[in-house]
Amino acid sequence: MKNRDYIPKATIERLPLYYRCLDKMAVFDGEEVVSSKELGGRLGIPSTQVRKDLSYYGEFGRRGVGYDVSGLKKSIGKILGVDRVWPAVLVGAGNLGRALVNYEGFNKMGLNIVSVLDADLGKIGNKIDDITVESIKEVERVVRDGSIELGIITVPGNAAQEVADELINAGIKSIWNFAPTRLIVPKDIIVRNEDLAVGIVSLIYHLSWNKHDKHGG
Amino acid sequence: MKNRDYIPKATIERLPLYYRCLDKMAVFDGEEVVSSKELGGRLGIPSTQVRKDLSYYGEFGRRGVGYDVSGLKKSIGKILGVDRVWPAVLVGAGNLGRALVNYEGFNKMGLNIVSVLDADLGKIGNKIDDITVESIKEVERVVRDGSIELGIITVPGNAAQEVADELINAGIKSIWNFAPTRLIVPKDIIVRNEDLAVGIVSLIYHLSWNKHDKHGG
DNA sequence: TAGATTGTTAATCGATTAACAATC
DNA sequence: TAGATTGTTAATCGATTAACAATC
């Protein structure tokens, strides 16, 4: 595999799309070969972008032919690291936490939420799917015993930093943060913010301006 | 307000962050004036980026002084269209749908989910918050009577296109799509995909390569 | 061979950052 | 006035797209 420096962030966001699409093609359509044009077409991505993205990691196709569907799927899976299972601990047993635990499709991406923690005595002991909610105080044991590197934060914004600190202290390496809070973390910890409110506002923005433009603004 | 052409998408994604931060500053910290450096600092965004983003829409600050916190908040709110309430219909009364209905913080961004629909007879009639789940067959009436322009899709991937068609047919103008499916829609309909699986995979990618790099790969 | 499609280089496009005059 | 900070132009950086030789 090639040098991984200078790979566009956007490329890394597209690889999972390719991966999931190839999986569908292999399972449902039984296709064996796919061109960059066909794969891109299904995702609304130019063929040239598909080829460029793949080229950062190696040569996976056959000129004049295309890509082997299950072969490429396997290769991308390996690149992404979804060829193994990554256990994760989720903190915050509210509605969103519950939704993520039950979310179909994480499985296929290598994510397995193995533990749910909360500070609220009213929630500790509850069952989500087949997981029993434990106290946040157990975080160190849970992370150690499960060799967990991934933490998911679904607590309210004002509790997020404290939870992040506890997760990091317990040995977590990456955080998926659903709270609308910028977390301050050591530089070797990777944080990804999944800020739902931002998503809806960009839609509202476009709706709003369409109105302006139509009805004079 | 200035010409709205050629505004970077990234700028529109940052405006909600500024908006929410200014709101916090006004409510909790009682600050009256803020510089681009201070505002950016709280969000991890360079001051020059903050000023550039705002400059697409007008002049909101005072040289040598900074920005009036509540004034700028109001201005950005107007730009984004969150100075009014946007009613929305959500389709798919599963865990994720339930989580979104209960999500704190949409309110502040002008989103109000007023109706929840589902095709599953087992879910119709259930209550989520104070909303009773209705049949998807009611979509036309609901959208018309509520003057709803915003639809949210939280159904499984294989049902998403059909639901999108029904929403569009009923008169919806924008779709927030949580299903891992590329929707095919008329070009005047705005779609935003909120693909949760992509988010986690980019974290897994970095975790995975950190391991490679450390333990020789 | 002729047609198709890859992998890659070069050109273009878009977004960020630096620099600085304007001005409070 | 001196110091601070904006708004904007120009320079840089990064990502996408076009073009095309390589090759199946």
UniProtKB/TrEMBL annotation, chains A, B:
UniProt GO molecular function: DNA binding; DNA-binding transcription factor activity
Do the record's keywords include Repressor?
yes
Boundaries of every CoA-binding domain copy:
81-182
What SMART domains does its record include? CoA_binding
Q: Which GO terms describe its cellular component?
A: cytoplasm
This protein's source sits in the domain of life called Bacteria
Q: Name one GO biological process term.
A: response to redox state
- By its UniProt entry, which InterPro entries does this protein fall under? CoA-bd, NAD(P)-bd_dom_sf, Rex_actinobacterial-type, Rex_DNA-bd_C_dom, Tscrpt_rep_Rex, WH-like_DNA-bd_sf, WH_DNA-bd_sf
Subcellular location per UniProt equals: Cytoplasm
The record, for Gene3D superfamilies, names:
NAD(P)-binding Rossmann-like Domain, Winged helix-like DNA-binding domain superfamily/Winged helix DNA-binding domain
Pfam families from the UniProt entry: CoA_binding, Put_DNA-bind_N
Which keywords does this chain's UniProt record carry? Answer: Cytoplasm, DNA-binding, NAD, Repressor, Transcription, Transcription regulation
Give the chief site where it resides.
Answer: cytoplasm
Which residues make up the binding site for NAD(+)? Answer: G92, A93, G94, N95, L96, G97
What this protein is reported to do is described as: Modulates transcription in response to changes in cellular NADH/NAD(+) redox state.
Show the PANTHER family listed in the entry: REDOX-SENSING TRANSCRIPTIONAL REPRESSOR REX, REDOX-SENSING TRANSCRIPTIONAL REPRESSOR REX 1
Question: What NCBIfam families does this protein's entry cite?
Answer: PRK05472.1-3 (NF003989), PRK05472.2-1 (NF003992), PRK05472.2-2 (NF003993), PRK05472.2-3 (NF003994), PRK05472.2-4 (NF003995), PRK05472.2-5 (NF003996)
User: What is annotated about its quaternary structure and interactions?
Assistant: Homodimer.
* Family note: Belongs to the transcriptional regulatory Rex family.
User: This protein is called what?
Assistant: Redox-sensing transcriptional repressor Rex
According to its UniProt entry, this protein's organism is Iocasia fonsfrigidae
